[in-house]
Specification:
GO terms for molecular function: transferase activity, transferring alkyl or aryl (other than methyl) groups. The chain has 300 residues and is mainly α. 78% of the residues lie in helices and 0% in strands. It has one domain. It has helices spanning 10-17, 23-35, 44-69, 71-77, 82-85, 92-111, 113-130, 140-164, 170-189, 195-201, 206-210, 212-236, 240-262, 264-274, 276-292, 294-297. The radius of gyration is 20 Å and the shape is flat. The relative contact order is 0.13.
């Protein structure tokens, strides 16, 4: 039997979809839903459809595409992964990636025009991130920016677009873009663990380009500044309590960053696990501020 005709192990198929990564876009999509000011119950099917699109479809597609084009590197660094280990044999990795792309776009089409084009943009970035010759992931500036946009900004925008049936309020778009920009710094946290390997393989992450200490400072500023702008926007829109809560979350992150900056390589994953939840909590608080704003809620 040729490798292309071999059976795929069900557990390997689930593994290559990386369900643990679905949370971020699903959370951001939910923030978009909340920020839209639209009622939940009467739109339950649209919300469920959008959550499925953000996580199990578009995000999962990006994971399969990434694993397929990283298969040669993974054969060296992580040979037990489904594709290099042969648990997903032959060209099945590519076939699954293409099938997931088409399924994502078909699903998005059913949710409306704005959602469809958002999904087109998302899957295009997913392929551009991993596929040669573009392969955005080879440069930390472009690659992390693409992931932040796809994991935070685009799902937030899509969640709001699903609910309003069109282009969301400018304040919603602004906050979605800001939190997506901050996610660039979050993505950099994942790069500190592989500086040596990335250097050898020519992957120019920020720690490789700038060194660990400078990259850590950049990632902290990139995470903090957008949140500070969000606080200013919330104050300008007349939501001092929401702004205060986001400010407290940012202050806690600042205290945690002090330890992270002392030894970025050692503490990057620690900060990712402890500090990032404060970041994403601020996203939801900001979403509720927009929901309760008369200008945004007036779109309902």
């Amino acid at each position: 039997m040729s490798p292309a005709m071999q059976r795929i192990q069900p557990a390997a198929l689930l593994e290559v979809l990386h369900p643990i990564t679905w949370f971020a876009p699903m959370w951001a999509f939910t923030c978009g839903v909340v920020s839209s000011g639209q009622p939940f119950l009467s739109n339950a099917l649209f919300i469920l459809g959008g959550i499925i699109l953000a996580g199990p479809l578009v995000c999962a597609t990006s994971q399969v595409v990434n694993d397929w084009y990283d298969r040669h590197v993974d054969a060296i660094n992580e040979p037990n992964r489904p594709i290099p280990s042969g648990r997903i044999p032959g060209a099945w990795g590519l076939i699954i990636a293409i099938a997931m792309t088409l399924l994502s776009l078909a699903w998005a089409w059913m949710l409306g025009t704005w959602v469809f084009w958002a999904a087109v943009f998302g899957v295009a970035l997913a392929w551009a991130y991993s596929m040669p010759p573009i392969r955005l992931k080879l440069n930390g500036w472009w690659g992390n920016g693409a992931v932040g946009l796809c994991y935070e900004s685009l799902p937030w925008f899509t969640g709001a677009a699903v609910m309003v049936g069109g282009l969301p309020h400018p304040a919603i778009i602004a906050l979605a873009l800001l939190y997506g920009a901050g996610a660039h710094g979050i993505m950099t946290l994942n790069d500190f663990k592989a500086i040596e390997g990335d250097t050898k393989l020519g992957v120019r992450t920020l720690p490789v380009q700038l060194g660990a200490e400078r990259a850590a400072r950049v990632s902290c500023w990139v995470m903090a500044v957008p949140q500070a702008v969000v606080i200013a926007i919330l104050l300008g829109m007349g939501h001092p309590w929401h702004a205060l809560f986001v400010g407290v979350l940012l202050a806690v992150q600042g205290l945690l960053m002090i330890r992270f900056l002392k030894d970025p390589v050692k503490h990057a994953l620690w900060y990712s696990g402890i500090g990032v939840p404060f970041y994403v909590s601020g996203m939801m608080i900001s979403a509720f501020a927009l929901r309760f704003d008369a200008g945004v809620a007036g779109l309902s």
